[in-house]
Amino acid sequence: MKTFTLNKLMASAAVCMVALSGAASADPHPDAELIIEGELNVKVRAEPAAHLDGAVPEIYSGWLFRTDETRSLQMDDFENPAMLGVEAGQDAWNTVEGAAGKSCADCHGDAAESMKGVRAVMPKVNDNGDLWSTEDYVNNCRTERMEADALKWNSGDLNNMVAYISVQSRGMPVAVQIDGEAEPFWERGKDMYYTRFGQLELSCASCHEENYGMNIRADHLSQGQINGFPTYRLKQGKLISTHNRFRGCIRDTRAESFAMGSQEFRELELYVASRGLGLDTEGVAVRN
Amino acid sequence: MSDVKPRIRLPRTAKAGQAAEIKTLVSHVMETGLRKDSDGNTIPRMIINRFTCEYGGEMVLDMALEGAVSANPYVEFDIMIGEATEVVFTWYEDGGAVYTETKELSFG
User: Fold this and answer.
1) From what superkingdom does this record's organism come (chain B) (predicted)?
2) For residue A228, which of A49, A138, A272, A282 is within the disulfide window of CB 3.0 to 4.6 Å?
3) pLDDT tens-digit profile of A263-284?
4) Which residues in chain B are closer than 8 Å to A78, comparing Cβ atoms?
């Protein structure tokens, strides 16, 4: 009995050791094309941006790493559960809130016009020289123009609004600015991407650059692209924000994570978004 | 409940004598009745417990839903198309609320 137990222990130790270096069981899907509603062709593979300097041979949307069933959910707006959030966001867009008696629509009119392309350039340096995510712009409008309360990061209401804004950029190329005034933020985001965190000493790159396509235990690693956020995550059964996923990833390295909406995550968001330059904006995506 | 919103998709064109695929989704929390709030009190069950579809005055689907069904229940099914155009969908909620939607088939 004793030998048996020992053998089993050794076997599981071996499994742990190969967890990261193990055979690639499911690389990104070789030829799937993301066509939403049979009309909108979304680019899910691209040549890497010059700044990546050959770190990866090709860039892939996280969509290509998911199962056939999950991928098909995103090809049909009726089946895409994130569209419920988009609808709720649309309702909120037209709802008057706050002391100023205004709705989003009072200033911005039809989101299909005014918000087109907005998500594709986020996060972005604002007029005061601060790096802002879509959420910051929404909340600034709420507190300054509508005189309403700011929404909590990753709350259903805020994610729904960001989802509604993101959908207006669906199929448009990711177009974040990384030079000029954005450069110092981008550089710090890049440093963070390659910094190892937590007891497991994993950086973003450990999984999403060096080992995408592999399995880390039961998780199929993607390149960690964020062009599909806010994303409906089946595991959580709701829309989640980019920063929520960042926080979860860093927590999973057994580190003390950063707060959603923190400056660190805005900078990381900018850098990770820039790794997706070449892909199209997918928001709102469906993932596992 | 204010956040109950049915969504229905019929085929763009229907043909008599052929099956038509119907997709329905209703936004609903589907509270199981098993959860407790922060004070330890049970949150009462609030689910859609029955969903029906009538076509041409005839019941073509009548299903019972239970507490294990996920939020925002999605139901997809086929019906045989005859002469009638009107399809009536009804969702029954715990507590007696009923939500009805009527859609017209267009024949191609």
Assistant:
1) Bacteria
2) A282
3) 999 999 999 999 999 999 998 9
4) 7, 9, 23, 25
